[in-house]
Amino acid sequence: MLSTLFFLFLSALSECDAFAPGTMGRLHHERTTSLQASNLSPDSNSCLAPGDAVLLVGPGFLQLNVAKAAKAAGLRPVIVAPQQKIDSFAKFVRDDDLIKDATIGMADPGEPFYGEIAGVVFCAEEAVLQPSILSTIIDWKDRDIFCAEGIKRVVACAPITEKVNEEKSMGWMPLLNNDKKTKENWKQFANAFKKSASYTSGPGSLIRFGSLLGGSIDGSDELQELGLDEGIYKMSLENYRDLKERSFDRYRIGAQVLLGDTVNVKPPNQDSMEKEAIKESEQLEAFRAVGGYPEQDRTNRHVVAQAVVQSLLRSTFPNDNPSSSGDSVPKEFTVLSKCEDKIPTKEDWDTMFSSPGTAKWPDPFKFDAAKYGFEEVKA
Fold it and tell me: Could you tell me the CA-to-CA distances from 1 to 6, 8, 175, 327 in Å, in that order?
């Protein structure tokens, strides 16, 4: 049987749950039927700055990773989730201040963060957000809840449309899962966002991610501040999932930025080349875990969180009119992992945003096994 805590992460988030009546969630406003530009910053090139408050909507581990990354960057993240989820998050986020600032809805006058919200991130990793939540948040009638400039930055996260490999999500269960419905829900949400004023003419961008793995602290020292409790590795019923999640945090926190909704498909001769060039299975495994080896369609949660924060701190540019500098991001881009054991620096993101594209697949015939502690195999 599933534990009560585990079941909370599998349950769907409905709009009425996320904005239930309560101290921080009174629905005293009139809803609009479409996203307007009234609450958006008039400057479409605006971006957040350290000290700005940002709402994070969509309960899950990705939301918590984004919160920790945003805090580390000097932003003031506000986790938005039903109260029962906020209570359960405390064990994983390992940050009392983030939990204290979490809320079940939009702030009322006199409450924390009222009049200070500068950014919004929709960061669910399961298909639980309905399109209507976009207008519920962005067209909130009590405009005084936002900062003086209005909403300066909006980021929505959604999975890539087509994958090379169908990696099961952490919460996948055969009795509860409906792949067709899940894909349709994501499609409706992403399409609604791309039709909204925040995307078409405002400060909005859409970040696509691959199958999500990792997000904890079992990796480089920098993950101690950014990672969630190692208990997240135990949230799956798959026996081998623990090792897979850990491997992503240890070896796959590099990033690729690709324009649009896409993947980095492995060249058709890559596998055969690797097997021809590298005979020892351990060496082959090492080759595929170092040197920037790309992921085709999988993304570490840390990488998505960093991409979100870097996007908040930059303006946007249309995909068909690319920028020549790294101080802005594409309207829609995909972020995938690659095999590096350090999180990208700001300068790395500058380069990836100014020149987005797939990471290069390495030449196995140039692999130096001795560099990674393997003895030379003599014929």
Answer: 10, 13, 13, 49
Q: CB 2: neighbour CB atoms within 10 A?
A: 13
Residue located via tokens 């990793």: 125
Say if residues 207 and 159 touch (Cβ distance below 8 Å): no
Q: Can you list the positions of beta strands (E) in the chain?
A: 53-57, 76-80, 117-122, 153-159, 204-209, 211-213, 254-259, 298-300, 315-317, 328-330, 332-338
Q: Which of 379, 341, 338, 345 is nearest to 362 (CA)?
A: 338
Rounded CA gap, 212 and 232, in Å? 12
As a three-state string, the secondary structure of 48-67 is CCCCCEEEEECCCHHHHHHH
Q: What is the mean pLDDT of the chain?
A: 86
Question: Could you give the CA distance from residue 292 to residue 72 in angstroms, rounded to a whole number?
Answer: 25
One-character DSSP codes across 58-98: S-SHHHHHHHHHHHHTT-EEEEE--HHHHHHHHHHH--HHH
- Among 233, 208, 207, smallest CA distance to 219 is for 233
Could you please report the per-residue DSSP string of 8-34?
Answer: HHHSPPPHHHHT-SSTT----SPPPSS
CATH 2.40.160 for domain 4-236: no
- From the number of C-beta atoms within 10 Å of its C-beta (0-12, 13-18, 19+), residue 28 rates as exposed
Check: CB of residue 326 under 8 Å from CB of residue 349: yes
pLDDT tens-digit series, residues 171-203: 544 445 567 789 999 999 999 999 999 999 889
> Global pTM?
0.87
Please give the residue that has the higher pLDDT: either 256 or 33: 256
Domain coordinates of the chain in residue numbers? 4-236
Residue 301 has pLDDT above 90, yes or no: yes
For the cut 70, the answer to whether the pLDDT of residue 332 exceeds it is yes
pLDDT at 30: 33
Q: How do 254-259 and 332-338 pair as beta strands?
A: antiparallel
